[in-house]
Amino acid sequence: MARVLHNLLLFLIRLALKIRVLGYWSLIYGYCALCTVVALLKLCWNIVLRPTATFQWSIRETPPACLNDTSLGTHCYVRIKESGLRFHYVAAGERGKPLMLFLHGFPEFWFSWRYQLREFKSEFRVVAIDMRGYGESDLPLSPESYRFDYLVTDIKDIVEYLGYNRCCLVGHDWGGTIAWLFAIHYPEMVTKLIVLNCPHPSVFTDYALRHPSQLLKSSHFFFFQLPRFPELMLSINDFKALKALFTSRSTGIGRKGRWLTAEDLEAYLYALSQPGALTGALNYYRNVFSSLPLSHNHVRSPVLLLWGERDAFLEQEMAEACRIYIRNHFRLNIISGASHWLQQDQPDIVNTLIWTFLKEGEGRKSYRN
After folding, report:
1. pTM above threshold 0.85
2. Does the annotation count 285 as an active-site position?
3. Is 173 a catalytic residue?
């Protein structure tokens, strides 16, 4: 009798797990279908309003002058032997000083860290990379090439190529996700972790599934699962959607901080208008659902989490919830009036908070190899 009950219990557990998995993927594909319908309606409306302009966009041939500003650093390249990919990065500060490595988000590139490159080069070897699929780094077109383990290994290889065995790691948005994962899997290589407007991946998964409001704000995750169509929607009307992302009142940079200049916006359009650039950026999303939930969660490095109060894409409640996964000092700063694009929106406040965090505990000397 006991054996029968035991087998029945195992069967029910397996059945519940299968139902949960089925429900998870049904939610994803159902929401994908809904987002597709909405996008198609928007496309049809654009065609009605602007029949000639809708399908016109131009590749920017010449980089704006701000991308060659020598005060930001030197443009460098590295080819990683294991992956065979070439990465572009901008570096400043003396070689041999502690390494501060910056990881950008979507749909950005190294330029999003321009204010921090200038600020921290006095005490650090600062390096802002174009992550795989972005900017002047190689752009694998297969979504499979953007698995979490590949993205994390990229960072490990780059740190070692630069001649370091540890770094102060700074990430925003998708760069924040990779920074969290890198700190989880290579704790000995992260002296301090600084994340901007990106929750711990497990917090995001748990919270989004329980809060429809966050699921709605994350609708782009589902829409971006589609092949080719998201690239088209981001390109029509000469990249109008991308321009709005950075400049609109609801989602853009500078609602209470610094405004994105016309030249800054051109820098983004130059990077994202290149052939294959949007596909590379979107492929980060096309692997996310098969990579979650995580099997390992805990972060053992000291963590600073900076959060823009008016983030249009991520709810603030997730920020405090990150504490449960951190096995070290955790500091959370909510910046009033700041947007999702925190390091560009409020660079002075962000830089001051980072300096304060860096001076805590062991002090700056702890960053040296």
Report:
1. yes
2. yes
3. yes
